[in-house]
Design a protein that fits this description.
Order of helices and strands: HHEEEHEEHHEHEHEEEEE
Strand order of the largest sheet: 1-2-3-6-7-8-9-10
CATH architecture: 3-Layer(aba) Sandwich
Helix content: 25-40%
Low-confidence stretches: 1-17
CATH topology: Rossmann fold
CATH superfamily: Alpha/Beta hydrolase fold, catalytic domain
Length: about 270
């Protein structure tokens, strides 16, 4: 018990050197804004340019002044329980040159539903504000921002992907997917909260893995661990979010509160 507590305290101190709370705070507010009926109303730091809402998917795109960046924020599911129960748990293989890279098929369908509109919004917004910098975020199913990060890296090399910050994201793909993601050297922060159930689906036993880099918050959002999942061969850090597996990762309340921001359609707007 002492060793685990000591590790928690030491890693929490070390993580402050590499973990930008300002960036994560900006990202969590953008992630929650995607749920709101009037996103970013009276928000001076962010300018909303596009609100894309179709096929049960939504993304907001605009300009962040502090980071001089175009932002994209994907909304999570409006009904967490139904969404988790309906996860298809089968792979699709969307990258012809990488035939073994598998993505969960339901997530990929959701991502593709508004892909063209999101890309057009990015092109228009970056041109309008004369910036090539892009920041991506999303909560829950909004973790499909990971797929956009990969597409931008592959297909739009002139853009500078400055950050990908997700909150309570499910596992997106298989081990080959994670390997490809690592090789793209994307600046990724994957924030998890205590016993949040969503980061544990689809299950590892079906061949799914998480991307790096996990930041795991304790129950009351006062401390965090910068998890050990960054080396090329590492999987999830079993002392972080995965420490509650397989029996205790069941909390919806933890999924709906991140950094003391209430998430979802009934959240802080």
């Amino acid at each position: 018990m002492f060793n685990k507590l000591f590790k928690f305290m030491v890693l929490s101190l070390l993580s402050t050197m590499v973990y930008s709370l300002d960036l994560v705070s900006t990202s969590i507010n953008l992630a929650q804004a995607a749920y709101c009926s009037n996103p970013l109303e009276n928000n001076n730091a962010n300018i909303l340019e596009y609100d894309i809402d179709k096929h049960s998917m939504r993304a907001i795109v605009g300009y962040n002044k502090e980071y001089n960046s175009t932002f994209v924020s994907y909304r999570g599911s409006e009904n967490i329980k139904n969404w988790v129960n309906n996860i298809k748990v089968r792979f699709t293989y969307p990258y012809p040159l990488l035939p073994h890279v598998g993505v969960e098929s339901g997530f990929y369908q959701s991502y593709q539903a508004i892909y063209q509109e999101v890309v057009k919004a990015i092109v228009d917004t970056t041109y309008k504000y004369k910036t090539n910098q892009i920041m991506l975020t999303g909560h829950s199913l909004g973790g499909i921002s990971t797929l956009l990060a990969i597409d931008l890296k592959h297909n739009y090399p002139d853009y500078q992907l400055t950050s990908l910050v997700t909150f309570g994201s499910p596992r997106m793909g298989n081990s080959e997917f994670v390997k490809m993601f690592r090789e793209l050297d994307i600046n990724s922060i994957r924030v998890t909260h205590y016993y949040d159930m969503v980061p544990h689906v689809p299950e590892e036993r079906f061949g799914y893995q998480h991307i790096p880099s996990e930041i795991w918050y304790n129950e009351d959002n006062t401390k965090f661990i910068n998890c050990d999942d960054n080396s090329i061969n590492s999987k999830e850090d079993d002392t972080c979010s995965n420490s509650c597996s397989p029996l205790h990762c069941t909390s919806i309340n933890d999924h709906l509160t991140y950094l003391n921001v209430k998430m979802g359609i009934d959240g802080d707007c």
